[in-house]
Task: structure prediction
Amino acid sequence: MKALLLAAGVGTRLQPLTNKIPKCLVPINGRPLLEYWLSMLVNAQVYPILINMHHFADQVSDYLTKSEFSRFTTTVYERALLGTAGTLLKNRNFFGEDSLMLIHADNLSKLNVKAFIARHNNRPVGCEITMLTFNTSAPHSCGIVELDDRGVVRVFHEKAPNPPCNLANGAVYILEPSILDFLASLGKEIIDFSTEVLPHYMGRIYTFHNDIYHRDIGTMESYDAANREFRLCCGKEEKFIQQSPRKQSKINPISRSGY
Result:
């Protein structure tokens, strides 16, 4: 399975930290945020991994080039951001006709990636997306979901003032390739996954609950909490395990140093 790590965000709410460093490289207990995702994905044999870049793209490219993950990754630079689903559509040739993982890389998470994939592979008939969920302590600031008895999303509350529960969308998904056909049918380049894709698939989104750790580090308060919590909650940090990379797909958009 291939993956898209969305890492192009500016991180306005993390300023002044992100005035000199891209959001995806902010340190969590001394390691770049992006490194946690790369370790989990490669250890679960989810690669090659496509990473989009925009803010301080040179730093992201330099980090990846010098890292042990360079042979598992391909980068694309977006001069103008395409939206979370627009990036998927622009690079659909990279993903081919297989299931793929879509990850907002501004979240800090520890999860069983193989169990996530197994859950998707055993999804109910008709479901084309599997969404990672988690329990949040701030439901008013998240997308809250209500499920049916199969674990399929039946209602979605986007940052509602009084949400009915604390079960939140973790912004990590496994998608069937048919999603790319839907994106193409919209006839535009800039597409938001949360507002333009998820509503269309309501009733066809299965869920996987991550009960280990998941946090959006979009604010300085949350970022500070992540640095305090993560080692205590998750124990020993996951380290990269050497893998033999599969042959990587070629990609048409600008990659690596092409920005």
Observations:
- Residues 247-259 have pLDDT under 50 and may be disordered.
